[in-house]
Write a structure and sequence with these properties.
- Chain A: Belongs to the ABC transporter superfamily.
- Chain A: This is Peptide ABC transporter ATP-binding protein.
- The complex is a heterodimer of chains A (318) and B (327).
- Chain A is an alpha/beta fold.
- Chain A is 35% helix and 25% strand.
- Chain A has twelve helices and twelve strands.
- In chain A, helix 3 packs across helix 4, helix 3 packs parallel to helix 6 and helix 4 crosses helix 6.
- Chain B has a domain of 184 residues: MetI-like (MetI-like fold), CATH 1.10.3720.
- Chain B is built from 14 helices and two strands; from the N terminus they run H-H-H-H-E-E-H-H-H-H-H-H-H-H-H-H.
- A two-stranded antiparallel sheet of chain B has the order 1-2.
- In chain B, a hairpin with a 4-residue loop joins strand 1 and strand 2.
- Classes of the chains: A alpha/beta (318), B mainly alpha (327).
- At the A-B interface, helix 2 and helix 3 of A face helix 9 and helix 10 of B.
Chain lengths: 318, 327
């Protein structure tokens, strides 16, 4: 069994619009470690969510995957390339909600308003396993209890609009985990929630990950959340990967100027009253728009820099 | 839920009283009445009418009574099924109404089924394959359908039927069955005539229904809950029907009640062209002749049907959409 659940290589996605083609992803490459939490950080429009949607093949026209591989090595089945699956491949339906599932940003709209919570959670089971409706509802109830919903026997009959935002996100998490996926993708799962609920949901995701030993791909723009959640970090900017490394490497000793800029822009108590650093002021005249291939450094991390910048780096390391 | 139904059913009563009053007043508004319009007709034929005969006629129609008494007599009779006598058709109104109402309902319901049978699949296809060749083809055909007045379509159908098939497609029965009692042969004859008004009346509604469904469905298709369901591994067809379509269909449920008056007014001209024995043409004649009992009964029945239709669609909607509260 390979160490990497997913190996994404040179993934490219384009959106064709009336005014031209947008390259949403270019040469995106990183691994998702088995049983670990990988975080993708980046600003809005950096391609975090598009990457996540590619893994579940949820990219809809006018968007399409134009190149690259998503090599998936499930625990219990032969490996295959998700990017190359035909649209009608039965493995696609197994993949979605079966071996990979997703928690979305907006718990208020991620559930259909006209079906009960129980119906929508149990449906995930019924889609993937050959069990009776009663068994599916029982398992759904178990999972709802596990994500911290009280009074499950009554709550399971209720509709999403009878739940608060935090409770709905718990339902969405239960729905995502109910088939025991090998990979749970969390696409900014706490962005729409208030701060105290955010902390609860993050703890819940982390605890469940330790229990269920699944891999997690955690998408966020909050570096504090990365420090709390992740084992490995992928920094994205404008549809490209700029730096990949362990949390310690990326957050303690960032190499790429953009990563440094991101870290410098975090507001802290020490900077009270002072102007926050902008990414531009830290990055200076470093060129972020020219793509450079990802190079692996001596400490194992990968970074996308020009050869001149790499040469500088080695000088300062000495 | 039960309390809601009871409340809604009783809520209909004041509405209907108000409508009956309005109908009565509106019909009384034009100068003159059935007697004056009859007198006009008789005098234009050179007949002399004695003042005594006029007074008798007025007494017969209760026209010599105060308005309030006239109203109470009319609505009181209506409640026990006595709708008065139609001077125009020289028959009791109730006979006339039930016969015409029956045909009208049959044509309305069948054209509604026709509309939905075409519009819903077309709308779904058009939304799911937005901007495809099929979408453009369907929306173009529907636009032409929407822009064609239905009476013109009726004329074209009649011309085509006569010119190419050598049949007269007016009316709801062939001449040999027109006054015959109901039999299997008469039913077949009726069905073979029914489809023309069904198509002609249904086509205009098909276009707008299809466009509304397309727009609703397009809205719903981009909602996050659809992506959630897809990410859950729901099969594409089931996904479409269970999630976006289920919500896109709600606006149609809420307009079922409004279909009745819309179809009746749309039906009138077509029925005149096609010579159908339905409510529309009779209502127009009754209004022109100020045949108070006939016109009032038609309008009142339409009001009852509309209010019932609204009740039905509200109840259906409350059943279909859990977000609706009963308080």
């Amino acid at each position: 069994m390979a160490d990497n659940l997913l190996e994404i290589r040179d993934l490219a996605v384009e959106f064709g619009t009336d005014i031209g083609t947008t390259h949403a992803l270019r040469e995106v490459s990183f691994d998702v470690l088995r049983g670990k939490v990988t975080a993708i950080v980046g600003e809005s429009g950096s391609g975090k969510s598009v990457t996540a949607n590619c893994i579940m093949r949820l990219i809809q026209p006018p968007g399409r995957i134009t190149g690259g591989k998503i090599h998936f090595s499930p625990n219990d089945a032969p490996a295959y390339d998700i990017a190359a699956l035909p649209n009608k491949d039965p493995r696609l339906l197994d993949l979605r909600g079966g071996s990979v599932s997703m928690v979305f940003q907006e718990p208020m709209t991620a559930l259909s308003p006209v079906y009960t919570v129980g119906n929508q959670v149990a449906e995930a089971i019924l889609c993937h396993r050959n069990v009776s409706k009663e068994e599916a509802f029982e398992e759904a109830a178990d999972m709802l209890r596990r994500v911290g919903i009280d009074n499950v026997d009554r709550r399971i009959q209720q509709y999403p609009f009878e739940f608060s935002g935090g409770m709905r996100q718990r339902v969405v998490i239960a729905m995502a985990l109910v088939c025991h996926p090998q990979l749970l993708i969390c696409d900014e799962p706490t962005t729409a929630l208030d701060v105290t609920i955010q902390a609860e949901i993050l703890t819940l995701i982390r605890d469940l990950q330790k229990d269920l030993k699944n891999s997690v791909l955690f998408i966020t723009h909050d570096l504090g959340v990365v420090a709390q959640m992740a084992d490995q970090v992928v920094v994205m900017y404008q549809g490209r990967v700029l730096e990949v490394g362990s949390v310690r490497q990326v957050l303690k000793t960032p190499v790429h100027p953009y990563t440094r800029g991101l870290l410098a822009a975090i507001p802290g108590l020490a900077t009270k009253g002072a102007r926050l650093a902008t990414i531009a002021s830290v990055v200076g005249d470093a060129d972020l728009t020219t793509p450079h291939p990802l190079m692996t450094l001596a400490d194992g991390r990968q970074v996308s820099l020009s050869s001149a910048q790499l040469a500088d780096l080695e000088l300062t390391d000495d | 839920m039960r309390a809601y139904v009871i409340k809604r059913v009783f809520g209909m009563i004041p509405t209907l009283i108000l409508i009956s009053g309005l109908i009565f007043i509106v019909i009384q508004l034009p100068p003159g009445d059935i007697v004056t319009s009859t007198l006009d007709r008789m005098q234009s034929q050179g007949l002399e009418v004695s003042t005594e005969a006029v007074a008798n006629l007025r007494a017969q129609y209760n026209l010599d009574q105060p308005l309030l008494i006239q109203y109470v007599r009319w609505i009181g009779g209506f409640l026990v099924g006595d709708m008065g006598y139609s001077y125009l058709f020289t028959r009791p109104v109730s006979e006339l109404v039930w016969e015409r109402l029956g045909y009208t309902l049959m044509i309305t319901v069948s054209s509604l089924i026709f509309t939905w049978a075409i519009a819903i699949p077309a709308g779904i296809y058009s939304a799911v394959r937005q901007y495809s060749f099929g979408d453009y083809l369907i929306t173009t055909i529907m636009l032409v359908g929407l822009a064609t007045p239905s009476f013109l379509l009726a004329l074209m159908a009649m011309y085509a039927g006569y010119e190419f098939f050598g049949i007269s497609i007016g009316g709801l029965f062939s001449p040999e069955y027109r006054d015959a009692p109901w039999s299997f042969g008469r039913l077949l004859d009726f069905l073979s005539h029914l489809w023309i008004p069904m198509v002609v009346l249904g086509l205009g509604g098909t276009a707008s229904t299809m466009r509304i469904l397309r727009a609703n469905l397009l809205d719903e298709l981009s909602k996050p809950y659809v992506v959630t369901a897809r990410a859950k591994g729901v099969k594409p067809m089931k996904l479409l029907f269970k999630y976006p379509l289920r919500i896109a269909i709600n606006p149609f449920i809420s307009t079922i009640g409004l279909l009745m008056p819309a179809l009746i007014s749309g039906e009138a001209i077509v029925s005149i062209v096609l010579g159908l024995p339905t409510i529309g043409p009779a209502l127009i004649q009754a209004l022109i002749a100020q045949d108070m009992y006939l016109a009032g009964s038609f309008l009142m029945l339409l009001a009852v049907l509309t209010v019932l239709g609204m009740l039905l669609s509200d109840l259906l909607l409350a059943w279909a959409d859990p977000r609706i509260r009963y308080e």
